[in-house]
Amino acid sequence: MFLRICNYFNPTARRASIFDTWVSIMPKTAAIIPAGGVGRRMGLSLPKQFSELAGRPILAHTIQVFQQSAFVDQIVVVTPADYCRQTEEIVAQYNFDKVVKVLAGGVLRQDSVRIGLESLDNDIEYVVVHDGVRPLVEPGLIESCVQAAIINGAAIAAIPVSDTIKEVTGANLINKTVDRQGLWQAQTPQVIRVDLLRKAFERAAADGFVGTDEASFLEQLGCEVVVVIGSERNIKVTRPEDLVIAEALIMEKVDGNYDRPDYLIGHGYDAHRLVTDRSLVLGGVTVPHSMGLLGHSDADVLLHALCDAILGAVGLGDIGKHFPDTDPQYKGISSLKLLAHVVGLAREKGWVLSNADITVSAQQPKLAPYLAAMRNNISQVCLIKEERINIKATSTEEMGFVGRQEGIDAHAVVLLRWE
Predict the structure, then answer these.
(1) Which of 153, 156, 310, 402 could form a disulfide with 396 if both were Cys (CB 3.0 to 4.6 A apart)?
(2) For residue 170, what is the domain's CATH number?
(3) 285 — phi, psi (to 5°)?
(4) For the CA atoms of the chain, what is the radius of gyration?
């Protein structure tokens, strides 16, 4: 069998237009998820794929990634016969509508995959085989393997062996050190043209061959298989310590989003009416003026826009949702306290402020003398250097409600980074 190594797995370099083109023209693809393990090495009373990981079964995490992938049209799950009903309940609970069949597996992994293969619709041209207990596979890796298989007929995820490899005798004595040059550790997904895999299984049945993965069956046919660079995070949960590692890794993900970006952008806007008998508070600074902004809190329009930008970036609505003007506890409250709460909400989801750019529009008073103090207030609350906070003050040349001195408004744009 010939192996060629391709660096297809580079999601950051893939442009959206290329992605959309692939999705629109690619042939129909089904995922087969063999989940027939019994968990002997885990020391469990039930198969490991049903063990809880971050509040849901391992199998549910695995299916969800394929459910979300635009490169997979349908999913077939193959489990032990006694656990088909439990698997169907998981599918129903998490609304995995791409799962078209839950099937009872065979004695060997290859039996389970073949059962899944035989159940596929006739219009399925490519099959993605993925271990049910590899819950941390990234969508980008699935897509890269599918793309490589469409070009080459078959592709598998794998990573180069980095540790020193020893050949050991039955008595646990080292026989020799194996040259690791050119050695790769196979993973899943493994993506193969359906007709090729069927032919490989027929050959294996005739020869009585037992393989450990789908690529090993293609070796018997002398087929070319492309190796796509996989991920160290794409671990297979086999032993109890694997579950601990998977738990730690999966907690880095955001709300089940398996394709988390490194940065988020948010935009916020707010406007308040100017009235007499109110203090004018902007950026946490009381600015001397004959009028102030009307609102339930201190009506700090600048900080409200900033709060909305942060909340918007992490998908948490707006300040009205979190601090309703019908709640007496927020009557007259400093918006610096609201900002601190919003920053805390973002941090709970794993995000911190990288920088903010804020524009406040006011015809009067002139705000330039107070901008430095505003920046300092925001940097203190957001735990960020002042140079990362930019505030611009402008007028509207006496146009609109700002120009008529009826009110003040503000826009804020933020960049949040994952931490």
Answers:
(1) 402
(2) 3.90.550.10
(3) -110, 130
(4) 29
Mark whether 76 and 214 lie in a shared domain.
yes
Task: Report the distance separating Cα 201 and Cα 210, nearest Å.
Answer: 10
Identify the CA nearest to 412 among candidates 303, 274, 337, 262.
303
- Do 206 and 313 sit in the same domain of this protein? no
pLDDT of residue 170: 87
Cβ atoms 374, 302 nearer than 8 A: yes
What is the Cα–Cα distance from 15 to 11, expressed in whole angstroms? 8
pLDDT of residue 2: 45
User: How many angstroms separate the CA atoms of 208 and 158, rounded?
Assistant: 26
Could you tell me if 62 and 89 lie in one domain?
A: yes
For residues 77 and 103, the answer to whether their CB atoms sit within 8 Å is yes
225 alpha-carbon distance from chain centroid: 28
The number of folded domains in the chain is 2
Q: Does one domain contain both 238 and 287?
A: no
- Residues β-bridged to residue 126: 29, 193
Both tokens assigned to 304: 């409200």
Quick check: is 256 in a domain? no
Q: What is the pLDDT of residues 143-163, one digit of tens each?
A: 899 989 999 999 999 999 989
β-partners of residue 281 are: 286
What is the distance between the alpha carbons of residues 39 and 36, in angstroms, rounded to a whole number?
9
End position of a domain, from candidates 216, 250, 284: 250
> Is 94 in contact with 59 (CB distance < 8 Å)?
no
Q: Is residue 255 part of a domain?
A: no
Q: What angle do CA 189, 79, 219 make, to 5 degrees?
A: 40
Stretch (H or E) spanning 3: strand 3-6
Q: Are strands 280-282 and 285-287 parallel, antiparallel or unpaired?
A: antiparallel
Residues 242 and 282 in one domain: no
268 assigned to some structural domain = yes
Q: What is the H or E stretch that residue 268 is in?
A: strand 263-275
Q: What is the pLDDT of residue 383?
A: 84
Q: One-letter amino acid identity for 407?
A: G
Helix (H, G, I), strand (E, B) or coil at 269: strand
Dump pLDDT digits (tens) for 31-45: 999 987 665 555 566
Number of neighbours of residue 273 by Cβ within 10 angstroms: 16
End-to-end CA distance of the chain: 43
Q: How many CB atoms lie within 10 A of CB 36?
A: 22
Q: How far apart are CA 73 and CA 398, in angstroms?
A: 57
The C-alpha atoms of residue 33 and residue 36 are separated, in whole angstroms, by: 9
Place of tokens 């004595």: 173
Q: Which residue has the tokens 């948490």?
A: 316
